[in-house]
Amino acid sequence: MASGDDDFLAGRFEAHRGRLRAVAHRMLGSAAEADDAVQETWVRLSRSGGAAAGREIDNLAGRLTTVVGRVCLDMLRARRSRAEEPWESGPPALSSEAADPAHDALLADSVGVALLVVLDTLTPAERLAFVLHDLFGVPYEEVAAVVDRTPEAARQLASRARRRVRGAREPDADLARQRKAVDDFLAAAR
């Protein structure tokens, strides 16, 4: 592939990198793993025919979302098969201090961790359908392509995930702190 073609493809990919990283981070719960997933997406794109293929793809954003979603599914399945724990500890304790920028930043981080704790209760396909549709507004037709299901099945996956997120049961250990984290997440999401 010529250098000009490399630059063209890299430029198109870079335009989508931030969104891809956000999707991967919500799916995987780890910035390092999200970076790995985005890098694997780049590798797969560059292997699939390079710039010529990049020019032929009508909806590059949709294709890249599909690829990063599948990479994340693979990583989640591998994590479950190895029984890995993605977090070293639970969500940090939240205080009821008056709102200030530092407290707001701590709350945002805690809410993100609380969401990841809840998302970890979902199957990989439910998690992907929920994250793509509910958090990133991806239409069910595109979600269906990522999870290799029909649009109706993708809608059902997201619906099941929503029900499980709303009624997620926490482990008995430190139940009050976990409930507060989930309540804070739901309040922030509203």
From TrEMBL:
<dbReference type="InterPro" id="IPR013324">
    <property type="entry name" value="RNA_pol_sigma_r3/r4-like"/>
</dbReference>
<comment type="similarity">
    <text>Belongs to the sigma-70 factor family. ECF subfamily.</text>
</comment>
<dbReference type="InterPro" id="IPR013325">
    <property type="entry name" value="RNA_pol_sigma_r2"/>
</dbReference>
<keyword id="KW-0731">Sigma factor</keyword>
<feature type="domain" description="RNA polymerase sigma factor 70 region 4 type 2">
    <location>
        <begin position="114"/>
        <end position="164"/>
    </location>
</feature>
<feature type="domain" description="RNA polymerase sigma-70 region 2">
    <location>
        <begin position="13"/>
        <end position="81"/>
    </location>
</feature>
<dbReference type="Pfam" id="PF08281">
    <property type="entry name" value="Sigma70_r4_2"/>
</dbReference>
<dbReference type="InterPro" id="IPR052704">
    <property type="entry name" value="ECF_Sigma-70_Domain"/>
</dbReference>
<dbReference type="InterPro" id="IPR036388">
    <property type="entry name" value="WH-like_DNA-bd_sf"/>
</dbReference>
<dbReference type="InterPro" id="IPR014284">
    <property type="entry name" value="RNA_pol_sigma-70_dom"/>
</dbReference>
<dbReference type="Pfam" id="PF04542">
    <property type="entry name" value="Sigma70_r2"/>
</dbReference>
<keyword id="KW-0805">Transcription regulation</keyword>
<keyword id="KW-0804">Transcription</keyword>
<dbReference type="InterPro" id="IPR013249">
    <property type="entry name" value="RNA_pol_sigma70_r4_t2"/>
</dbReference>
<dbReference type="InterPro" id="IPR007627">
    <property type="entry name" value="RNA_pol_sigma70_r2"/>
</dbReference>
<protein>
    <recommendedName>
        <fullName>RNA polymerase sigma 70</fullName>
    </recommendedName>
</protein>
